[in-house]
Amino acid sequence: MSGLLLWSPFGEMPLDVPPSANESSVSFLRPSVSPDCSSLIRNGDAENGGSTGYSGWLETGGIISSVSPGLSGSPTAILLSNRQNSFNGPAQFLDSRCFISGLQYEIMVSYKLVYAVGGAPFQCNPAITDTTLAGICPRGTLQIRSINGQNTNVTYLYPVASSVMPAIASTGNGFLYGYFTFNDDMAAANSILFVVERANKIFNIIVDDVKITQSSNVCASPILNADFEVGDNRAWYSFGNTSLDVVSPGADGSNYALRSQGRSQFWASPAQNILTDCIVVGDKFTISGKIKLEKNGKPYICDPGAVWGKVTNGTCPKFSFKVSKGTNATIEDIAGLTGAWNSSDWNTLNGAGTWSNDHKVADTLILHVSKVEANVTIYLDQVFFGSNDNWNCSGSTGILRNQNLETGDARYWTGFGGAIVNTIPGGAGNTRTAIAASNRVVAKSGVGQILDSACVEVGQLYQVSAMVKLLNASNGAPMDCLPEATYGPNTCPLASVMSQSLGGIASLHPVASVYNGTWKSGGQWNELRGYFTFFRTEKDAQTKMFVFERAGPGLTLVVDEVLVTPISLGSTTSSSLQV
Fold first, then answer.
1. Residue 106 and residue 212 in contact, taking contact as beta carbons nearer than 8 Å
2. Which bin fits 439, alpha (ψ -120 to 50), beta or left (φ > 0)?
3. How far apart are CA 459 and CA 424, in angstroms?
């Protein structure tokens, strides 16, 4: 090459016929050159392809060439034709020296499928995963390869990019999106091959605008594309039997939202793999999202008090984690409905938790929507994670969040036993806001919070204090109760721990009652006080809540200034334990 030092794009191709020279007669000197890392993909837009038009690209079977015009108005694209099986695709070796172990990288690819015979465009279906079906969409993979003499072995194959939505029917144009963490296996590989493959062999594959870029801000959130304002479902996929598409408008006047329809299981929904590399064990997180439901084209009404497992329809949605490690998988509910359900508008799910070691080391940690009966269409938007560094379940605010309602809304609180929850003005001690549980048909209904498992310590003593009052549901007039009543219309509120496992019944463990056994009449605030420890069955239950309940049916139960805090028995006296 006229004395120029060049780094070979790849160097693993074995010779068909061994050379006559031997090791003693041939010396191979590798030039000391720096890698060209100005672009992690060479000729990704097919606009710098030299005389062939496809410089930098090769094939894993078939014939590689360039084609004009390109996609989205560009002059040129990369074409792979004469494919012999679904795994033949356009490919490129990556220079591992340009990647840094432990960092995250984004992949974006514009693609088009055309019939090998006739050249008509084809619209694939991203929901299809069976490689024997013609409608399957291509994906991007990284093949981690090792060389042993004349043999090249693919030691790992990582799917790293998938089709984000159906290709446009008129043009066949589609889009692949994905991300990956460059790990030690990749760094130690002899070669890394990026391939766009898996489309049925009856189609030619055209790719254009291929980009691999370092994502410097990927850990700004444990999920990507939280509000769908890019106009597609990148990073989200179908969990279970459901199809996804992006619709307009979104929540709160935004442009887009994600729709999940054709659901055949209660857990089928949009899903995204949490970026576990971004998790810091012990850190607190919050999560919120906008959601609405439809069935048969009409708004769907869910019951905030219905508990999944006791019933299998009419329950309101939850955000859940599926935590998988080896052959074991657990489901962890992390967020529920805030306030009453509005069937004709967007509703808010709120929740919080603590990142655990189980989250960090999981093979997959999947965020999805659960506990919505099959065949109900889900609309999802604005799924945001945040940190909750100022909250600590062993701190002064106790194991509950928004315990004094001074956020001005009902975040983290949810209805229990069919009650509808809203905030009302005028809290205890002249504060601004309290929370009210109305539509209480039975005594064992009210308002509560899902407990963070990390905050539930068996054997730890907890102190409970809360301010409550009762109102007539019709006119808001103050109502009284009898602390000595154990059933009937005159019972007073209790604070209880509710626990339930999937398929089991809800268990209520009363932990606080009216202080000193005296109810203050005339609309005054009354204190509930108590001391308790969690049972092991409550710690292990799939669902555990701290609830306020047991007031007379039909009454509105108002709660404020709630504290559930761990205490040391040695720091208390017999008088301080009086309830």
1. yes
2. left
3. 36
Burial of residue 474 (number of CB atoms within 10 Å: 0-12, 13-18, 19+): exposed
Note if the bond before 566 is cis, omega within 30 degrees. Answer: no
What is the model's pTM?
0.65
Place of tokens 């993979």: 141
Q: Could you say which DSSP state residue 125 is in?
A: B
| Interval 65-114: pLDDT, tens | 999 999 978 899 999 999 999 999 999 999 988 888 777 788 999 999 99
What are the tens digits of pLDDT across the range 275-317?
Answer: 887 788 888 888 999 999 999 999 999 988 788 887 888 999 9
Count Cβ neighbours within 10 Å for each residue of 112-128 and write b for 16 or more, e otherwise: bbbeeeeeebbbbebbb
Beta bridge partners of 65: 79
Which residue blocks in 454-554 are alpha helix, DSSP H?
Answer: 536-540
Taking the C-alpha atoms of residue 468 and residue 427, their distance in angstroms, rounded to an integer, is: 10
> Cβ(168)–Cβ(72) under 8 Å?
no
Q: 566, 572 in Cβ contact below 8 A?
A: no
What residues contact 305, with CB distance under 8 A and at least 6 apart?
A: 415, 416, 417, 418, 419, 445
Identify the bridge partners of residue 152 per DSSP, sorted by sequence position.
Answer: 147
> Collapsing DSSP states into helix, strand and coil, what is residue 268?
coil
Indicate the helix (H) or strand (E) that contains 409: none
User: At 334, phi and psi to the nearest 5?
Assistant: -125, -10
Residue 252, SS3 per DSSP: helix
How far apart are alpha carbons 164 and 260 in whole angstroms? Answer: 13
The token duo for 421 is: 């929850």
The DSSP-derived string for 6-38 is ---S---PPPSS--S--TTT------------S
- Compute the distance between CA of residue 304 and CA of residue 504 in angstroms, rounded to an integer: 18
Tokens of 57: 């690209």
Residues of the chain with pLDDT under 50: 1-17, 32, 573-579
The pair of structure tokens assigned to 124 is 């694939």
Token digits for 134?
Answer: 């013609």
Q: What are phi and psi of 398, to 5 degrees?
A: 80, -165
Contact 137, 167 (CB under 8 A): yes
Q: Are 106 and 234 in contact (CB under 8 A)?
A: no
Nearest to 116 by CA among 85, 71, 76: 85
Helix count (H) and strand count (E) of the chain? Answer: 3, 33
Residue 22: how many CA atoms within 13 Å on its side-chain side?
1
